[in-house]
Design goal:
Layout lengths: L19 E7 L3 E3 L7 E4 L2 E4 L9 E6 L10 E11 L8 E6 L1 E6 L7 E2 L2 E2 L11 E7 L5 E8 L8 E7 L9 E5 L5 E8 L6 E10 L2 E4 L4 E4 L4
Parallel strand pairs: 1-7, 2-8
Antiparallel strand pairs: 1-4, 3-5, 5-6, 6-8, 9-10, 11-12, 12-15, 13-14, 13-16, 16-17, 16-18
Amino acid sequence: MSTAANNISIPIALSSVAAAPLTVTASYFQKFYGSKLTLGTGNANFTATGLKNSETIGSITLNAAGGSGADDNQGMYDITPSNARGGTFSPNNYNITYVAGQFEVLYSLYGFTMNGNTSNWVQSKVPIPKIAAWVISNITNNSANYDCSISSAFSRFTLKGVCWNTNINPTISNSAGFDTSPGRGPMAIYLTGLSGGSTYYARPILNWQFYLLWSEREVYTPLLNE
């Protein structure tokens, strides 16, 4: 053994792996008035941005600031995500930012039908969404203007308009006009092809998902010769 050997210091490079940024955002969804909503753990109403290597998140915890009760009013409510778990990702590998979202309570339109001047809806516990403030004006011997307002209770419909006929229950197989402007609020339709002196009935219609929905009330006006 050599007693004259020198001590040699060998530097060792150190490295670290930083947690990747990950954003989990609560997704918009809808709940019908009159139903109860149960949130908490195991929720899938979210989007995730920043996952690596095709990893997935199984579920999150989602809490709402109101709106989950059966009698909570129609409208928008805040939802807060947390506690992302499951899937193939590891929470320890990410710096997670949670972003709140909203969900909407709206009146259910499922199975809505008309029978003459009445509907099949219960008008106490579950209010009927109204197509309101209708006015028929500028009546001539062959035309008229129909103006109304689409209630905020309606959501994500794909088509809106008015049908009219001398039949008390007009449908789109009779005369119909459609308003191409987006969203809820005012709707204006020009009624044409009328016969002076006849009584006409008009009712608004909405196309919602797979359903063609009629207004809860028919309206009419006599159209007289000028």
